[in-house]
Amino acid sequence: MATIYCDWFRAEIMSQFQALEDYLRHSEAQIQDSHHTMRAQILSERQPTDASYDDVQEWLSLQHTQLENCNRKFTGVFQQTLRFSVVTSIFSLIESNLSRVAMEICRRLHLNLDLEDLQAKDLVRRFKKFWSKVANLNWWDDPRWDALKDIEALRNCIAHRRGVVKKHEKRIENIAADEESHSSTLKHRLWNLMKSEFSSSKSRIAIMP
User: Fold this and answer.
1) Which residues contact 16 (CB under 8 A, 6 or more apart)?
2) How many CA atoms lie within 13 A of 17 on its CB side?
């Protein structure tokens, strides 16, 4: 009889990322639909009849302001808030699942220290310290660790400074430069990397459409 092996842990993690991708796609579509509805509502308002030239100009100015505010909210504030939340959620998912991996290793090897007990500059260094020093396992190099460092840098920038990049913050500057040079969108790079176990994204520099 054939034995079927299923990695349920990996399947669960990927389903979490898929759900987050679906959430972003549906939320962005809803924002776009609401934007079109609001613009149509503003444009459908009829110009006052039998009004003086000054009154008409005032009405047109008010309509222009309403349209500008509408565009700013839906294409700026709402989309940025959504994408910021998605970036922080991605990092939270990765961090929590790496912690689960460490806890399982601790259980199997009867270790006293886990990932939460260690200090390091970033999550990758902390997990590497646990893997190599605590669990005494062989570390492996992978470009996706750099992608995770990108995510953490962006998450910290969003969480602590609402996406405002400090001077000489080279990692985020390099992320934005790479995004522009490849002319790729946030979503394409994000989901392609997520589906290969980790993910990357952009800072406030490039997170806007």
Assistant:
1) 93, 97
2) 24
What is the rounded radius of gyration, in angstroms, for the C-alpha atoms of the chain? 23
pLDDT at 113 (0 to 100): 85
The amino acid at residue 140 is W
Instruction: Look up residue 124 and give its two tokens.
Output: 């990758």
Q: Is the pLDDT of residue 181 over 90?
A: no
Q: What are the CA-CA distances from residue 56 to residues 45, 174, 201, 208 (Å)?
A: 13, 50, 46, 35
Structure tokens at 38: 């609001």
CA 187, 90, 143, 157 dihedral sign is: positive
Instruction: Give mean pLDDT, residues 25-36.
Output: 95
Distance of CA 79 to the CA centre of its chain: 11
Q: Is the pTM here over 0.85, yes or no?
A: no
Query: What's the rounded Cα separation, in Å, for the pair 180 and 93?
Result: 27
